[in-house]
Here is the input.
Amino acid sequence: MESTPRIRVIVDLLQEQGRITVAELAERTGASEMTIRRDLDQLAEQGVLRRVRGGAISLLLRGEATPFAIRERADTTIKDAIAAELDSLISDGETVILDSGTTTLAVARRLARRRVTVVPLDLHAVTVLSRGPEVTLLVPGGRTLPGSLMFTGHLTALSLSALRVDTVILGACGLSVRHGLTSNSLDEVPIRQQAIGAADRRIAVCAGGKFSDAGFGLVCPAADLDMVITDDGAPAAQLAAMAQAGVEVRTVSGI
Here is the structure.
């Protein structure tokens, strides 16, 4: 198993079990115990776990979001394909609010090459978009959340309330017709809702695995979205339900 999926398996198992041994992780991933120890040391430096003799103890609560740096390395081919599809739907001169997240960060890399106006909702995207020679960058301000570096709070909401944009591009911790578009951070919910209210067109971008997840903060019902862009690994029944709810669904190859 390659490094990125192996790290994700380790984090998922730790969150599920709370404590796990090096030997068990080596058996579950097919990696050597030496490799697992290096992985655990790396995750300990990121605050994901605490090393103990023979294994590790999770420092993440059950259901808590995986650290941004780990999520960013996952499903990169899928995220790039989703970003390319989204990029084809944006016209030169368009105004866009870009949500925080790892898939939307892939979108930021595309938009940095375009002549567009972008309001990014996190500092990761600000860094990428600031390199774009023709991008007009509007930074909303506010305080940033650890890890995701998403802007939140009164100043962010006040900035967004003064805007009207063509498109908002939303990430998701979870997405389904039953639960809607959800987030694991209640601090993020009102900012995303403000962004949705400011936009004429609402597009969600997420890997197919997000259709099996649900955060505890409701951002909006699925029917409030105009379009979802995901990969062909998304559950067919979920995509059919989205289409039935009036949401245009576009899929890209996950290969």
User: Anything to note?
Assistant: The chain has two domains: 3-63, 71-252. The domain at 71-252 is CATH 3.40.50.1360 (Rossmann fold).
